């Protein structure tokens, strides 16, 4: 699955709220701050086939920034 630039921007914004992220299957990404006082949700173009977690969102974004296009494989 290709990861769009819009979704990258959403993830970048979410990284300022919480460094960890759990993405559930579907096309909605949610996050909540550690103190549970900030909640955010975004509908994205991609439809994720399964749940997955990112431990350090900033590190993940730094790694994918090395590539022009990102193709995620969920096998």
The best one-word shape is: globular
Q: Would you identify the regions where 5 or more consecutive residues have pLDDT less than 50?
A: none
Distance between the termini: 11 Å
Largest sheet: 2 strands, antiparallel
Nearest-integer average pLDDT: 95
Q: What is the ordering of alpha helices and beta strands?
A: EHEEEEHE
Percent of sequence in beta strands: 35-45%
Largest beta sheet: what is the strand line-up? 1-6
Calculate Rg over CA atoms. 12 Å
Helical coverage, percent range: 25-40%
Give the number of DSSP strands: 6
Which secondary-structure class do the elements indicate?
alpha+beta
Tally of DSSP helical segments = 2
How would you describe what is shown here?
With 75 residues, the protein is an alpha+beta fold. 25% of the residues lie in helices and 36% in strands. Strands 1-6 form a two-stranded antiparallel ribbon. A two-stranded antiparallel ribbon has the order 2-5. Strands 3-4 form a two-stranded antiparallel ribbon. The longest helix is centred in the N-terminal third of the chain and has 11 residues, at 5-15. It is globular, with a radius of gyration of 12 Å. 5% of the residues are buried.
The gist of it:
This protein has 75 residues and is of the alpha+beta class.
List the helices and strands and how they pair.
Blueprint: E1 2-3, H1 5-15, E2 21-23, E3 26-32, E4 39-48, E5 52-54, H2 57-64, E6 70-71
Antiparallel strand pairs: 1-6, 2-5, 3-4
Name some characteristics of this structure.
6 strands; single chain; 75 residues
């Amino acid at each position: 699955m290709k990861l769009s630039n819009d979704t990258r921007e959403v993830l970048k914004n979410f990284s300022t709220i919480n460094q960890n992220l759990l993405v559930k299957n579907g096309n909605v990404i949610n996050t909540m701050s550690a103190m549970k006082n900030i909640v955010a949700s975004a509908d994205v173009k991609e439809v994720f086939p399964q749940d997955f977690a990112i431990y350090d969102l900033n590190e993940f974004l730094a790694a994918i920034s090395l590539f022009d296009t990102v193709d995620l494989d969920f096998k």
